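Slides due. Your pick:
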Amino acid sequence: MKQIEEIVKSSLEKEVGQHLVKSVNEVDINENLWEIGMDSLAFIRLVVSLEIETDTEFDDEVLTMEKLSSIKNFMDYISSKEIMLANKQE
């Protein structure tokens, strides 16, 4: 899970960092990213970056402010997709 956190934070820094009111290192994993400066364009850039970095396709129904509002939300979603993929391969 720590590796996923590092990937999410790295992508967040690269794609959204300049829009946030504080540095990514200061952001708590449960903090609402929308409240500290993420906008819809930055959100899409972050999702695309994470899809590439993690080889995970985000389902359309989770691409909302409510469902992906924090680093933890992104981490949990990517982890759940990895678990589903592993179970399919067994």
About this structure: The chain has a mean pLDDT of 92. The chain is about 55% helix and 0% strand.
